[in-house]
Amino acid sequence: MWHEFSYSFVFNTLNLQGKLADALHFFIYDTIKIWFLLITIIFAVSFLRTWVNTEYVRAHLQGKSAFYGHVAASLFGIVTPFCSCSAIPLFLGFIQARIPIGVTFSYLISAPMNNEIAIAMLFGIFGFKITLIYIVFGLSVAIFGGMLIEKLGMQKEILLDVKPIDAELEADLVKLTFKDRCKEAWSYTLDIFKKIYIYVMLGVGVGAWIHGYIPTDFIASYTGEGNPFAVIIAVLMGIPMYSNAAGVMPLVEVLTSKGMLLGTALSFMMAVTALSLPEALILKKIISLKLIAVFFGIVGFGIIAIGYIFNIIL
């Protein structure tokens, strides 16, 4: 319905033709589609989140087995709407709660890579199958990346003197009525939407320009099947950038439509959202350069591996 409405408005009402019409049609259709998906899925996740708060998660992770901790921390990353930088305060909270360093890194890796905004937009653009595979691989990178950092015994590489919480945390569940949960979820959804809707428009706008004006052959020649280093190039291109999934996902849709392989495009998106220079600069105040290098190395390797695996199986 939205597609027909956008098409009729651009080509019939405005009577536009050519590249400008293609770009404007893409912009209107994708903006409306992505806004709708964001509101719907963020509300659903926010509603489920009303049963859990961060204090509960911190308390729940204390004293659990190492592997359980990695899995739980990685899954918690899905329901926290944080980018690579905004996930750091909770990362510090985990350290303060004496949660093992590897588990804290499992969360730090998972939060920006697997947040609900990325999942919602991925589902809307590429469907259930691609979204499910992405989540499985994203969680795998977070779980095994955290386990590897734990194995390396890098606790001493934490520079910040974080005072531990001596008292045991209480795992109280949030008690609200159904109406209160809906009200809280809707309020949170609107708050998130107000913060990111402009990034969606910017991302879709850049995507619409590429869709309408950049020749398919240009992108396919550098990032298509013919270039074995395309995934590595995409990751290196993504690290200096700093954006959230709302801004970069529309670009992924356009780049794949122009000939970039899906695995290469997803690696680019993961590098933008999970690894960034601002994140490294903030972490420099908290952990050593050695640990930052290990963290970026592990996550970067995992993202590259996922890109090549996606390109092989899809």
Automatic annotation (TrEMBL):
Q: How does it sit in the membrane?
A: Multi-pass membrane protein
Q: Which GO terms describe its cellular component?
A: plasma membrane
Q: Which domain of life is it from?
A: Bacteria
Q: Which UniProt keywords apply?
A: Cell membrane, Membrane, Transmembrane, Transmembrane helix
Q: Give the principal location in a single coarse category.
A: membrane
Q: Name one Pfam family in it.
A: ArsP_1
* KW Transmembrane helix (keyword) present: yes
Q: Where in the cell is it found?
A: Cell membrane
Where do the TM regions start and end? 34-52, 73-97, 117-149, 196-214, 229-252, 259-277, 289-310
Q: Mind telling me which InterPro entries this protein's record contains?
A: DUF318 (IPR005524), UPF0718_permease (IPR053166)
Q: Does the keyword Disulfide bond apply?
A: no
Q: Which family does it belong to?
A: Belongs to the UPF0718 family.
- PANTHER family assigned: PERMEASE RV2963-RELATED
- Name it: Permease
Supply the source organism's classification.
Bacteria, Pseudomonadati, Campylobacterota, Epsilonproteobacteria, Campylobacterales
